Each structure stands twice: as C-alpha cells, then as structure tokens.
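Fold it.
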Amino acid sequence: MTFIEWAIANTEGLVVSAVIIVAAVLVSRLISTLIRRKMHGSYSDNLTKITSRFVYYIGVIMGLALAAGNLGINLGSVLVAGGFLGIVLGLAAQSSVSNLIAGLLLIIDKPFKVGDSIAYGDVVGNILDINLLSSTVVTWEGVNVRVPNSLLFNSNIQNYSNSAARMIRTQFTIFDTEDIDRICDAVNKKFSKQWYVLIEPETATFALQFNDYGIVMETRAWTPGATWLRLYKEMPRLVTETLRELKVEFASPKRIVVQEKPKK
C-alpha cells in the first residue's frame, strides 16, 4: 500500500490527529501564557520563561504522542525498527534531558543570572540568556558563545558579579635608595581619593621582595563588584601618576591577580 492509499484509507484518523495536534499547540500556548502572567512579578524572569516553555513543550509532545496513537503508530516500535536511527534519537534525547534538568537546576541554584560577568573555562563574558537547553555568553570581544546547560552546571564557574567586593593588586619596582614609607603613604592616599575604591578593607602598599633592579612593591585595593573593571584599568595609571608626582624612578606597574570576596 502506497502512502497516498494509506492516507485515503485513514482520512478520518488523519483529520482527528491533525485536530489533536492543533488543539495541543493552542492549549499548551494558553497554559504557558497563563503561567507567565501568574508568575510575573513573583519569580525571576528566567524562571518564569523556562517554566512556561517547559509546560508548552510537554503539552505539544503529549499532543504528538496522542495523534500518533490515534493513527495506530507505536512510537516505541518505530524507534526499535529504526535501529541506528533509534539509537541516535535516544542519545540525543538523553543529552537534551540532561541539559533540560541542568537548566532547571541552574535556575534553582542561581550560580548566575542574566547580565552577570562569569568565567567558564576559556570563556569570559556576560550572561545574555538562559534557556531550557543552553545558555548564551557574550564575551568581552562581542562574540556570542552557546554553552549547554549540563556543562555549565558541572563546571567550576567564576561569577565576577556575585562578589560584594573584589581585590585587585599590582606590582612595580623602585630603587632600593627610595623612601619606602613615603611611597606607600602617597600611593594609599591616591587610591583613597577614588570614589570606586573601598575604604574598608583599606588600600595597602608594601615592599614585597628584592630583585635585580631594586625593591618590588605591591599595592592592593578593594572595589565593589560592579566597578572592578574600572579599578582594573585605572590601577596602573594611579600608581604611575603617584610615583611621577614624587619624582620616583620606577618600572612600569603590572597587574597580576584578581581575587574575589564572596557576599555574606
């Protein structure tokens, strides 16, 4: 029997199945909309979006399953008969379910939210979107990187935006004939005048070690999480300006480490 002959013989079943699919899509969309309205304002936008999408997709899948059953199609038998295709679809479904569950767990655990600056492996940027199966990170170069949720959930993620304060340090070298206390006081005062540098913990400048050129100095300053990038960019300039005002000869400052102070 050809497909056309089968379709003619099962015209009534096809019509009923089509009605079931259309009804499933419309009902799922309606329920999804009601869920978004109900959750709006009470829950985060991400949780609202993911929950509504999850309900919508489940409803559509159920409609497709009912439509197939109405036509006498056994989905399990189709997958088994498909052999390799069934295995491929099964693996794909397993990966999708893993990403789906990970996406829900990310929303519940909240290691980050849309707009946060994070580091994941070699990827550093801002969270653009969190979807059911994957999340999108916009790197500081402007490149969109799609990351499966299961990888994010099982990885070590550094959330730069989730810190109440962050410490940035820089090093510079002076000759051993210079007055260390004078330099430390001047650098600390320069940083204390910057609105984005925290008073507590206070800025600290001290002699770290000797090298072949003189004394290695280090300055450590704290800033709120939202302004860490500004301090990161301004730190060498502030040290340079201070040393020039003191007429101190020095090597160029070098930033070396960024640390985090978690929120309490």
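The chain has three domains: 3-109, 117-159, 162-262.
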